[in-house]
Amino acid sequence: MSAAAEASGVRPEHAPQLHPRRWAALGVIAISQLMVVLDATIVNIALPSARVDLGITEADQQWVVTAYTLAFGGLLLLGGRIADYWGRKRTFMVGAVGFAAASAIGGLATTGPLLFGARALQGVFGALLAPASLALLTVLFTEARERAKAFAVYGAIAGGGSAVGLLLGGVLTEYASWRWCLLVNIPIALLALALAIPLVPESKADGDTSYDVPGTIVVTLGLASLVYGFTEAAKPDKGWDSGTTLAFIGAGLLLLVIFVLIERSSRNPLLPLRIVLDRNRGGAYLTSMLVGAGLFGAFLFLTLYLQNVLAYTPLEAGFASLPTTVGVLISATLASNLLPRIGPKILMLVGPVLAAAGMISLRFIDLDTSFWAHLMPAQLLLGLGLGFTFVPLSSLALVGVPSHDAGAASAALNATQQVGGSLGTALLNTIATSAISAYVAGQLTPGQPPSQRVLLEAQVDGYADAFTWAAGLILLAGVITALLIKVGKEDLPSGEAAVHVG
């Protein structure tokens, strides 16, 4: 019996039958997951229009992205537990309805703070929707090859959904309004809801189903404090050495330490440490966080570069992001076929190297970089790397997880990517802003304002620095994989490790 089967406690003779509507249910889950993932980037291309329309400052514009990823990442662990205990289908449906409502509020927002609040509310309901989706996959697909295909779909969406968001955001901003980047979620969510009712089965965990409220509050406040600290560091009048910056970062780290202590002593923790302390799952979560940190920040600066420096229209910027999606689709397909044969480790070593190579290539942008000769191949490499990384990650994070913890383990994977995205966006924004300010200061002529060319060169310099750091974060993910991941193909979840479908 495999390690996964032993850990699950489910013997082969007790494995449940395959669910007859599992492939149709996968389609419903894919629709909802795409909506959640692309919403992290769909507003990137709409940012310049929304900022002008609502009077949002450049310093605060990142909150349109960060408010979503922070609420999403901070509450995903609780969302995973709610899905386990309350019912995965029920949680999925409530998440879809709430996501649609929050999208309506954001699409009709008349002020910047209202838009930030709506984005945070989207994150709250996304934190119900996403872990319920992945947990449903674990109970619907129990045969090894089928599960690999299902996770290939999920991994392709996780890696390529962000790029799809950029394209869709460009189309909607160009031909309708930036507001439709939010309003478009309403029909998508309602479609997923209507299909889920007849096609998706209910399932839930047995045993102790109490909630860890103190842990939820502390970890969410800790993550918010960290992100706010990084944001303060980006402000010209603050910086890394300001008291405000250091206080928020210090408070965030302290709260995260307190969270770990709470989890150690809690009878039914939000994030059971046994899930994280397994070297393979822990390695998967660290990899997910680092790749998310590099990925979300890079997409933000790529779209700003395309529009602010190369003067692409929103639609052109959206289409210019397509090579990443193409790369993800190619590598996700290959990874799904290779995963049962060679296991996850080789794929998770190749993926970060390819993605980092694409990111390093973006480091050499200038004022008139060619799309076909430079940007296209760089993004294609990035996409290939993401697909090879996210497909095995989705499966690896659930190796040996018993049914009771399926939602928590699924949520932890989503949370690490979103938390990484929040922290990465804030950190890379700080790095880019600092580089831009330093470049302008170095080119100033006494008594004269900087020229338009100097301002554009400064942006290129800042974005290049951000791409360099993003490449470093992704390469570090490859190092983590090399050191921690020991799972072989025989340990991947199979029919023997199935969990019960209720």
UniProtKB/TrEMBL annotation:
Principal cellular location given in the protein's record: membrane
InterPro entries, sorted: EmrB-like, MFS, MFS_dom, MFS_trans_sf, Sugar_transporter_CS
Keywords for this protein: Cell membrane, Membrane, Transmembrane, Transmembrane helix, Transport
One Gene Ontology molecular-function label: transmembrane transporter activity
Signal peptide coordinates: none
Topology in the lipid bilayer: Multi-pass membrane protein
Compartment list: Cell membrane
Protein's UniProt keywords contain Repeat: no
Pfam family, one: MFS_1
Keyword Transmembrane: yes
Transmembrane segments: 23-43, 63-80, 92-114, 120-139, 151-171, 177-199, 211-231, 243-262, 283-306, 318-339, 346-365, 377-401, 422-442, 462-485
Residue span, Major facilitator superfamily (MFS) profile domain: 25-489
Domain of life: Bacteria
Entry GO terms, CC: plasma membrane
Family matches, as NCBIfam families: efflux_EmrB (TIGR00711)
Entry-linked PANTHER family: BLR6921 PROTEIN, MAJOR FACILITATOR SUPERFAMILY MULTIDRUG TRANSPORTER MFSC
Protein's name in the database: MFS transporter
Source organism of this protein record: Actinoplanes auranticolor
